[in-house]
Amino acid sequence: MSVTVLAEHRQGTIRDVTYEMLAAGRRLAHEMDGELEAVILGDDCEAMASELTRHAPRVVCGCHPALRYFSYETYQHVLLKLIKERKPAVFMLADSALGADLGPSLAVKLDAGIVSDVVDFHWTDNELVVSRGMHGGKLNADLSVKHSPAIVMVRQSFFRPEPIKIKGELVHYEVNADLETGLQTRHLGIEELSISGIDITKADILVGVGRGVKEEKNLEPVQEFADSIGAVLVGSRPVVDAGWLPKERQVGSSGKTVKPKLYIALGISGAFQHIAGMKGADTIIAVNKDPNAPIFAVADYGIVDDLHKVVPVLRKRLQEMKS
Amino acid sequence: MKVAVCVKRIPDTAESEIKVDDTGKDIIKDKLAFIINEPDNYALEEALILREKSGGTVVLVSIGPKETEEVLRIGLAKGADEAVRIDNAGLAGSDAIVLAGVLAAYFRKEQFDLVFTGCIAQDTQDSQVGPALAQFLGWPHAMYAIRFENKDNEVVVRRELEGGSLEVKRLNRPCVVSFQTGGNAPRYASILGIRQARTKPLERLDIASLGLEQDEVGDTGSKTRLIKLYVPKVSSAAEILQGTVDEKVSKIATIIKEKGLL
């Protein structure tokens, strides 16, 4: 019985979610009385593989020129063979742009069970039980998954990486397949998000707005409030999708990760994608109508109320304090 | 170009409290409004834009009960040409892979050039149906697309990666493209559109008419089984300030001052 974690990396750097999965995977492997191994694929991933041996007892490293950029097709080709040979009970990958492109098609090919947005897992009576988020994190579900293998897509920025340093074994995996023929997709390049205005990752105070702002015109008093305290206005995905704030002001896993001294979250329910981008703030104050909003799980202080009532009063109070 | 858009009708829980029912396996829905899954709305808009440019047909496909037709009629009112509802009788307990298999059974019977889906179902938070459907059909796919260009025999998509950068990717056609929100501005239905939608074709199918056996779907066909639903415990709870708006704000202002946060 083993747990295999697919390492995720970009531009020569291992992504944090890999260490998060290895920490969580180690615990699961322990419960199963099994082994943990990491798999890393790439064109030149020796250095990263060797870095991973400090976090996993065994690291399987598969190098091939065609694996230079992630493609679900080439990854799938290699992993189908690898999984059939090594037979892990649980195959773990991130619920990410990489994982969601790869996991479901791998599950179909392997005729395996798969679960998205996984936040916990246990091995009881030879059965894998996973907890996963639903409805923007407002609800959880416990599911049992057939493990032949079970494909587990792990929520990013959720599990805590462990500082443990071990000296694992590095196993070279021969990728000798023809990975170039018969491909139906081709990677053409990466376009970085260009920043034309303020770099929100450098601001000390951020005021974040979410769906609770309801209408674009309601943004004005919030902007004025932000200006009055010298804060930069940022937003969660729905506000940016609506075009009310530019993409470079988006906080979250598909936007920017910020660590300001103070983050005031207004009408943000706290979908995990947003929380992933702001939970590192020194102090978090949240205002939301829903007492069960997940944002209150990461906030230091909370006000359960309508942001439109709170903002004008808060602005006035803070101004009085200044003078 | 014949484009299918897979859509899902879901309860709108973004701004409301969720409660689990007595069975522990479903949520209490009678006070909730139902809407189209938001990413699907962006997928539909992309299909409508494509048809305006290159002509063709846009067909909505959904799995669900009779009420799903409300969402399909709205999609037709926005401009889709036809709709198909696959009845969910016999599908209780089906996981996302099984549902992708049901859709695949439909797409094997019909000829399409493109299938668009949303990148995630916002109720179950599964981001699986698009890529799994593509794999069942042997087609290529792309997840988290926010830009789409149709070329002669292929398509080019820009898909969103973490941190907001985009991967540019070329796919052979036919293919499945799963859209993230934010890439376009979904239209509203016009009065004229709503009137026209009433007479647009809406086909009704069920698992038997797709040639599926009962044991391939539902609980028996799924490799995941729901044990229970629950509202997650708030782990490191915030200090919730009490009182009137004035009192709560005064407390927060005092904290901000004392901690020197500004």
The share of residues in helices of chain B is 25-40%
Low-confidence stretches of chain B: none
Structural class estimated from helices and strands of chain A = alpha/beta
Overall number of structural domains of chain B: 1
**CATH fold assignment of chain B:** Rossmann fold
Query: What is the level 1 CATH name of the largest domain in chain A?
Result: Alpha Beta
Biggest sheet: strand arrangement of chain B: 9-8-7-10-6-1-4-5-11
Q: Alpha-carbon distance between the termini of chain A?
A: 66 Å
Quaternary organisation of the protein chains: heterodimer
The biggest beta sheet of chain B, please?
9 strands, mixed
How many structural domains of chain A? 2
Structural class of chain B: alpha/beta
CATH top level of chain B is Alpha Beta
Q: Roughly what is the average pLDDT of chain A, rounded to an integer? A: 94
Which range best describes the helical content of chain A: under 10%, 10-25%, 25-40%, 40-55%, 55-70% or over 70%? Answer: 25-40%
Based on the structure given, which CATH architecture of chain B is correct?
3-Layer(aba) Sandwich
The interface involving the most residues is between: A-B, 100 and 87 residues
Number of helices of chain B: 7
Q: Which helices and strands appear, and what pairs or packs with what?
A:
The complex is a heterodimer of chains A (323) and B (262).
Chain A: E1 2-6, E2 9-10, E3 13-14, H1 16-31, E4 35-42, H2 46-52, E5 58-63, H3 72-86, E6 90-94, H4 99-110, E7 113-124, E8 127-134, E9 139-145, E10 150-154, E11 169-173, E12 185-191, E13 205-209, H5 219-228, E14 232-235, H6 237-241, E15 262-266, H7 272-278, E16 283-288, H8 295-298, E17 301-304, H9 307-322
Parallel strand pairs in A: 1-4, 1-6, 4-5, 5-11, 6-10, 7-10, 13-14, 13-15, 15-16, 16-17
Antiparallel strand pairs in A: 2-3, 7-8, 8-9
Helix pairs in contact in A: 3-4, 5-9
Chain B: E1 2-6, E2 9-11, E3 34-36, H1 38-54, E4 57-64, H2 68-78, E5 82-87, H3 96-109, E6 114-118, H4 129-137, E7 141-150, E8 154-160, E9 166-172, E10 175-179, H5 191-197, E11 202-205, H6 218-221, E12 224-230, E13 239-240, H7 245-258
Parallel strand pairs in B: 1-4, 1-6, 4-5, 5-11, 6-10, 7-10
Antiparallel strand pairs in B: 2-3, 7-8, 8-9
